[in-house]
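Patatin-like phospholipase family protein
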Amino acid sequence: MNPSLRHHAETTVDDVSERPTRTALVLGGGGSTGNAWLIGVVAGLFDAGIDVTDADLTIGTSAGSTAAAQFAGATPTELLAAVLAADVQPLTGPSGPDRGRNAAGSVADHLERLRALIASAVDQADLRRRVGARALELEAASPETRQAQWRATVASRLPSPEWPGRRILITAVDAETGAPIVFDRDSGIDLVDAVAASCSSGAAYRVDGHAYIDGGFRSNAENADLASGCARVLVLSPFGGRSLVPASWGTHLATQLDELRARGSGVETIVPDRAAEHLFGANGMDPTLRPPAARAGYDQGRALADRVAEFWR
């Protein structure tokens, strides 16, 4: 094993049980629009006087890993302003390593392939191995410049490339073994690489020779179980806790939340309003929908501020 990655095995936070006031913010995956919605919700809460980015622990998966890194380097208000001011253009075809994959038709194709892999898998571990094998095939067929371009894209989204002082966990999956992975500031890799790995839903992404895929395949798009031992857990789920895998696999968000509560954690969950549901899923990679997703999240954050304040403080 590469010495620089000696700490990258999965960890949990059971040790926090000795500190019953510890808080956790869980930022789920959900594509480009999901990232914008997360920023909007947190900005709405922030402008109402509740700063949930001061959580003792932040768990980020896929688009949520990007948000976690963004909150570490800029205020929610600054991030929201950047989303709303961005000059976004519709996706009309491939332009760069992942742009074609992100087009609406490609998202639909991706979901169809994923459903087929799920249908052939016996459990989540088997699914991770199957998705990893497919990601390695896509990596082998990708242009040599893809990795560098994807890393540059991720880096451009982060206000700072440095891991923050407070604890952030970023999820991923080892593409070669299917093993679940959790990165933190002691993992020996750059924050940019951790986020790029967590968001790699197509071809595998390599860090020091190790290949990784999207953290949403670890268990689900939220991975809220990593907050085990925290007294208060706030979960932001762009997908609304929905999952394509069978409930019998035991990886659904609802199952994880029940387990957290059974172990003594207080849990609150925020999901998109019904009126905003069309902004996610198959439309989740449409950049023109980022501003409305952010505004929808902001309105929710402001509307839920009193409830969250009572829970968080």
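thats it. Residues 23-84+109-312 form a domain with the Cytosolic phospholipase A2 catalytic domain fold (CATH 3.40.1090). The chain has one domain: 23-84+109-312. bye
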